[in-house]
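Following up on my earlier thread - several people asked me to post the actual chain instead of describing it. Fair enough. Here it is, all 662 residues.
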Amino acid sequence: MSEAPARAGGLPPVVADVLRLANRTHVLTKQTGHADLTARIEAEAVTWKDSQVRIVVAGEIKRGKSSFINALLGRAGLLPVDADVATSVHLAVQYAPEPTIVAVRRAPDGPEERVTIRPDQLVDYASMQGEAVLREGVVGVEVGLPHPLLERGLVVIDTPGVGGLSRGHRDSALAALRYADALLFTVSVEEPIALSELRFLAEASERIDTVVLVLTKVDSSADPAAMLAEDRAKLAEYTEVLRRAGAEPDADEDQREAARRFERVAEAPFLPVSSRLAEKGRARAEAGRADAAATLLARSGIADVEAIFDRTLQNRELVRMANILRVVGHVLARVESAEQAAVRVAAGDVGAVEAELRERQGQLEALLPSQARWRQRLAGSIQRIQADLNRVIGREMTRIDRVYRDHIDANQKNVDPVMEALSSDLEQSVNAAWASISQTLAQRIDEAVARISREFDLEEVVLELDSEALPEYLRDLGVRDRSDPNAGKANLVEDGLPGLLSAGALGSVAAGVLGGIAAPVVLPGLLLAAPVGYARYKKRHQIQVRQDYLRIVREVIAQVRQEFAAEFTLKIIEAREAIEATIDEALTSRKRSIEQQRRELQALLKQSRAEQQTRKAEAERQLAGVRALRADAGTLQERVDSALGLGVTAPPPAPAAPPPPS
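Reply from S.P.:
Thanks for posting it. Predicted structure:
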């Protein structure tokens, strides 16, 4: 089914119909007292006339997200790579005639401050690798670039990593979707999609309809298609998990709607890309090697992403209508669940509701004595996590040691620059190791919590832990203070004396050849001995600098291994305390909810029959209205999908359009 073209100066009919549906849903949420859902509709509806198209790029750290954006924009090194983005900072890349970078800083009680910074300062203002004093108060960074897609109104937003031990990154990335038109979610070919990533996508599906999955680093795998298939399988498995949850007897309409939303996510486009091949292709193009450049760029997959951006720009209004429908569908499912409960209670079927409440109360009472069991399970999981993490730390430190040993051995004839860069190199390696181990810990804890939740029939436990940034005291490793000031320096005894002896010996040889002329022969002797002496010095210099280099690396690794073990032990303790507190709170909350429902039933029993009938009629009327709106939303979703599938380009908005909710 295709949409008829809009009248001159008007909107395509589907756009006008979606906006009318949003208005009707907005009115309904006000009538039913759902203030939070009213705000969701308002926030989504005000974006439909925006001339910019915002694409949010999200993904876990170490998944190649920032490298992908750099390759997409043709700016290698633009955004910090492998640098954990600060929790509250979004990096927005938009059009500007000349390259500019502005950090936006906001004090708690002060005005907004805009600071123009250099590209090399970006890591300091927007990542956890920078100095705390520089990133303090920074809420965003605006990067301006001259780029054809950006000039057409595209804005690319780089968000913090969505997993890890801190809920802050995840919430910050979700908040960026509030005014976004599409989500590009990056996963790496190097490891399967994680449970935390699947949960993020499920939450994101409440806010956005257009989702594209990007498989990064495909050049580093011999079989990227196998990993893509495995990720597809995990998406399908999680869809089935949500379906089963929605099919439970006590599931509500909101849970069933969540499963339907995730089905669309699981079927989203999944594009394999290679940032490295794209950068190589552009380098070949700059060198005038057009054929090689075209081959590399085609293999990189970047053109497929650009095509999606182009299509989104062409169909920006239809994309926004799809997003509005996604939010409307979520809101209506929530309202329908509430109205179904209201009808059941108002119908006076007190016995059925009491029986259900008794069943839930029985489940709760059965769960409370099992606290010792789930705590025992948690203790066992924590012990396994601790042992596993110690092995991970050991492997990571061994890997770093091997990398630096190979690096100095590969540069034996040029050790001085390598030694000079050791301090900054080690700092980056330690940062990267911390981020990688933090991610491993987060995944292990997620898996442990998921197992306990399934075994004891608990709702999803969401942890809110402290930031996973590298501790400040580990940022300065004191590498320069550890170096031996005499390593590799010239030594009179080891270099000078052998040189003089060589000069004398060579001078004697020259004197014999020249007929015993003594004084003039000293100079040829020195000239002949100088290269030998320098070679001796150079060799000793290289050996001593290499030894000093490896000694420093060993010392730093030993210190970092010890400090990491202590820090991550503390984090595991914090995680355990948070899990226990969260589960206790969940149990308490369930108990309060059941008690509140009982009080409402007792109040209902005291009502007259006439009052019950009036209340039932009103609840049924509201429920019928909600279901009618959901049916309309389903029809409109099909029309929007059809229009996007046919590539219908929406004309510019007209003043005659129905007003969005306000």
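The radius of gyration is 33 Å. That should answer part of your original question.
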